[in-house]
Amino acid sequence: MTHLFDSINTRNQEKLLKMLETYSLHFSKNTSIFSTFSSENVIGYIAHGFLQVIKMDKNGTKTIIEEIYENDILNTVFFSIDKNDYDVIAKEETELLFIDYESILTLKDTNKDFYIQFIKNLLKITNEKTKEKNERIEILTQKTIRNRLLQYFTIMSNKHSSKFIYLPFNFIDLADYLAVDRCAMSRELKYLKEEGFIEIKGKRITLLYDKYSSSDKLINL
Amino acid sequence: MTHLFDSINTRNQEKLLKMLETYSLHFSKNTSIFSTFSSENVIGYIAHGFLQVIKMDKNGTKTIIEEIYENDILNTVFFSIDKNDYDVIAKEETELLFIDYESILTLKDTNKDFYIQFIKNLLKITNEKTKEKNERIEILTQKTIRNRLLQYFTIMSNKHSSKFIYLPFNFIDLADYLAVDRCAMSRELKYLKEEGFIEIKGKRITLLYDKYSSSDKLINL
DNA sequence: AAATGAATGTTGCACTTGCAACATTTTGTA
DNA sequence: TACAAAATGTTGCAAGTGCAACATTCATTT
Question: What is the mean pLDDT of each run of 10 residues along chain A (221 residues)?
């Protein structure tokens, strides 16, 4: 994964941050950080901690839009027009470095290698995020819980070239990510276990089917 | 919407393209352009025409991942690991300018304003795409067809600050976009009409409910 | 104007899923 | 260790949806 300051040494990092409009803030566990930036477009570099971007439905259902870990960035430019529905929560003690987006794009003195490197890093990170969004869309376009699970397993398995998957979240959040009812998902996982397709031990899931042959039969009964 | 060559004059555009590894190709209507780039990461600038990025399920179900119109870009960096499942189709006669992605990021002689402008444009476009993906994810996390439709209507309505929505695609593709069965969607649209929430005339949909008050009742029965 | 194909509309039915309500297990903490 | 709280597992049932099969309307071409 690309890092915002990849290939930029500490000295140039400091120079760069002086050129841009920045400020650091600290957030306690389980606090909303949304009010601190809702009016402006910023990049929030997570120096330390862990964030969740969530969306509240009119009926109170929570949806995880994105999870952002240390060294990654929160880009508020991504939020759609109706910002009111969003919230960003620090799930741990979190240290955020905010960088004003406009100040990045309107910088005049741009003939510095480290500035170009910075923009390139930003571009790479954004690309990686889009890739992740595409993956999630692929999953969410599946029409059954079984197919969503299998699609998710396939993507995770491919990513690490292994038939062992270590869930990055608990089953509540997995159900959120797949946008299905947790209980119904639990039931489906039971069926998959019973039918001998997977094995679950805590957060480790083992795929017992052959990716490229029997998965055809697997998906759709 | 941001354009790849915004704020770059024709002369500099030519200079820029000479610095990068590029090639132009023409595609006939309904042909796959996938084979031309599947092995490399490129940006495909759509000089003229219209593309669809689709994904074929194991069971043959087509999903539209992205639609790309004139002046927008096709970024193959976005594709997930399993590229085999993807296809890109020219839906009209299409003229594509391919730019090798690596050549953009590894360019040495970067102290040119137009180069920085180019990267900034690319960044902006990528941001816009991520925003669109987020919107689609918001829609796809809705659990009923009704709520997906209403979420879609709300987003479209907000975008143009109007209660009139002009569908950018036909109902077949709308069902694809919402990832629901077309017939079931048709049924749900009928109910929404019968209950007096919307009006449909061709591709124009009129929202008859008040966005901020009755939509609570509307969503969830 | 007729004909062909594409898009849209309709509906019964079986299957999947969300929901609710609860049991059990695990985790965190006083 | 004991307790509370969170996470996970289970299941009946009603509601929603995909699927299939078909009817109707619209669009394009000869």
Answer: 92 93 88 77 90 74 83 80 74 90 82 86 90 92 96 92 93 96 98 95 91 44 30
pTM greater than the 0.70 cutoff: yes
**A16 and A34 part of one domain:** yes
A4 found inside a domain:
no
Å: A31 CA to C29 C1': 21
Q: Which residues of B touch A155 (CB under 8 A)?
A: 80-82
> Residue B168's CB: how many other CB atoms inside 10 A?
12
In a domain, B4, yes or no: no
Residues B117 and B190 in one domain: no
What is the distance in angstroms between the Cα of A183 and the nearest Cα belonging to chain B? Answer: 14
Mean of the pLDDT values across residues B23-42? 82
Distance B91 CA to D29 C1' (A): 20
Mutating which of A130, A152, A159, A178 best tests the B interface, going by the most B Cβ atoms within 10 A?
A130
Contact at 8 Å (CB) between B117 and A111?
no
